TrEMBL record:
This is Putative 3-methyladenine DNA glycosylase. It comes from the Bacteria. InterPro entries: Formyl_transferase-like_C_sf, MPG, MPG_sf. One of its GO terms (biological process) is base-excision repair. One of its GO terms (molecular function) is DNA binding. Its EC number is 3.2.2.-. PANTHER family: DNA-3-METHYLADENINE GLYCOSYLASE (PTHR10429:SF0). Keywords: DNA damage, DNA repair, Hydrolase. CDD domains: AAG. Belongs to the DNA glycosylase MPG family.
Length: 206
């Protein structure tokens, strides 16, 4: 595997990056526990102009300040007081783009993932949905600000390639509060992968 470099994250097109993250491998080594999984679902958030983004309208808080930092940084936030949601910060410093990793296909460290999630056996619920991704891969809000270029956390290319026809773009999930922006096709999935979250899709935009 080859670790993705800084320039991958520093590009301006958050949709392109979200699409290109499909098929890449996310690796965590927290407290000596190694886990990895192939990214199969992402959601792009386009910063200050995107009503679904935590940074919409230029909002800056202690939680969102990391989004304005350097691309290739982790943004982990707590959802509903339970779920640790892992996001990849992208673009140049000062532009708060981010990509939520919504689902991965487990590769290594599955026993560790089972222990973390309290599951007895592997099935597609292990890393299906961003809350399960966070739990299985060992994310906590304390990992916010962690570089994706280090050894504890990184995303890598192992030469796996997703066929263009297998990538689908759909509206994001759970952002009804975002008005017209809720309908934007900013969610990207690998069609047919059993770990992809949400309802079965009957109509999508490519």
């Amino acid at each position: 595997m080859k670790k993705l470099e800084q320039h991958f994250y520093n590009r301006a097109d958050v949709l392109k990056i979200a699409r290109e993250l499909l098929g890449k491998v996310i690796v965590t080594t927290f407290q000596g526990q190694f886990t990895s999984g192939r990214i199969v679902e992402t959601e792009a958030y386009a910063g200050e102009v995107d009503r679904a983004s935590h940074a919409w309208g230029g909002r800056r808080t202690n939680r969102t300040e990391v989004m304005y930092g350097l691309g290739g940084t982790a943004y982990v936030y707590l959802c509903y007081g339970i779920h640790q949601m892992f996001n990849v910060v992208t673009n140049q410093q000062g532009i708060p783009h981010a990509i939520l990793i919504r689902a991965v296909e487990p590769l290594e460290g599955i026993e560790i993932m089972l222990q973390r999630t309290g599951k007895k056996k592997l099935d597609n619920t292990l890393t299906k949905g961003p809350g399960n991704v966070g739990k299985a891969l060992g994310f906590f809000t304390r990992h916010t600000g962690l570089s994706l270029l280090g050894d504890e956390l990184f995303i890598a290319d192992d030469q796996f390639r997703v066929k263009k026809g297998d990538i689908l773009a759909t509206p994001r999930i759970g952002v009804d509060y975002a008005g017209d922006d809720a309908a934007l096709p900013y969610r990207f999935i690998i069609q047919g992968n059993p770990y992809v979250s949400g309802k079965k899709i009957s109509l999508v935009k490519k």
